[in-house]
Amino acid sequence: MKNKTLLLIGGGVCLLFAVFSGCGGNPGEKDYNKAMTSWKKNDLVRAQSQLEKAIRKLSGNEKKSVANNQLGIIRWNLGKHDQAIESFAESCRLGEDLSGANLNLGISLYYAGQSEQAKFELTKILSEDPDNTVARFFLGLVHMQLKDWKGASQEITEELRTDPNNAAGQNALALAELHLNRNSDAAVKRLKQLLAAHPDYAPAAYNLAVIHDQWLRNPGAALGWYKQYLQKAGEKGEQAEAANEAIARLGKMGPETPSLTPEKQTNPAEAAQFIAQGTKLHAAKQYREAVTQYEKAIKADPSQVTAHYNLGLSHYELQQYGEAVEAFSNALKLDQGSVNARYMLALSYARQRKWSDAEREAKALKKIDVARGESVLKYISDARKR
């Protein structure tokens, strides 16, 4: 999908709050207590000013660390993100483990789009506290920001082992695996399961809308999911404007329109020529060049099963197993009975050590070709032991 920014991750800035006890007799504590009172009254501007004054007077790194962390939270809520990051960094410098500012620093860097710095801070936290699920979740989001879909999937999957009911985690994992495996069916399934468990979780409805809109080219289903998103999120939702624009666009198409784009004329003869050229290149072990020819064939006629299957074979030889999975899956969408495509799909999953997916495809293969199905299942069993 080209417009990946439309997908909603969900979740929010979960900055950690900490306080120190003070009677108000020491320098700065009186201003600090005033700041806490102003904060409780939601007077953030005054709280910010009072905290800044308190920090100048406070003695002791622990108290200054806590106050800087709180100042960072206030500045973040006032939209002063750069200043907030400076406050969190200062809190870390004064007492890294005293106020939770190290985690706040990593989270705020993520939301500020400073991905590499966020990755560094969150990885540092996990090296000392591997069970910190918040840090692991946001590290997964950072990997998504960097388009490292494999890293994102690994981190978020690990986080969900501890907190399987984390709606934002399930949502993010669906998106990471969608881009990693190019498997919209799996993403749709996970998002629907998420909504069944959390009916009011609006980001999942929006992502279902985008997937049906831009991946599956199903305007009717997309329209329904956009409407569901607005029902759950309201007109002030993060993507309310985009959802309304999509609803207006899809509504103009009318019920007779099967696709968001005009139907393209196919050229089977041209596709056959590209397939023939690709086959020669593949036989000569020029796999990258073969991939180019098969992609041209698919562009000329997307219904050519052979083009998708051969594309998968070339990707497999290049050890590009994720791309091979996509190609063989596309071949099976066109021909569910393709024994060869099912066989290679199972092997491609096994090469990625995605054992459950590999076994699922091998068992499906066994239903139409017992010998080859059993052969792949044995290969998978032996490979898992290595």
Describe this structure in words.
By secondary structure, the protein is mainly α. The chain has a domain at 268-385: Serine Threonine Protein Phosphatase 5, Tetratricopeptide repeat, CATH 1.25.40. 73% of the residues lie in helices and 0% in strands. The protein is built from 20 helices and no strands.
Brief rundown of the structure:
The chain is mainly alpha-helical and 386 residues long. 73% of the residues lie in helices and 0% in strands. It has helices at 29-40, 44-57, 61-77, 81-95, 101-111, 115-128, 133-145, 149-162, 167-181, 184-197, 202-215, 219-233, 240-253, 268-283, 287-300, 305-317, 321-334, 339-351, 355-368, 370-385.
Chain-wise SSE layout:
Layout (H helix, E strand, L loop, with lengths): L28 H12 L3 H14 L3 H17 L3 H15 L5 H11 L3 H14 L4 H13 L3 H14 L4 H15 L2 H14 L4 H14 L3 H15 L6 H14 L14 H16 L3 H14 L4 H13 L3 H14 L4 H13 L3 H14 L1 H16 L1
Helix pairs in contact: 1-2, 2-3, 3-4, 4-5, 5-6, 5-7, 6-7, 7-8, 8-9, 9-10, 10-11, 11-12, 12-13, 14-15, 14-16, 15-16, 16-17, 16-18, 17-18, 18-19, 18-20, 19-20
Features:
mainly alpha; elongated; disordered N terminus
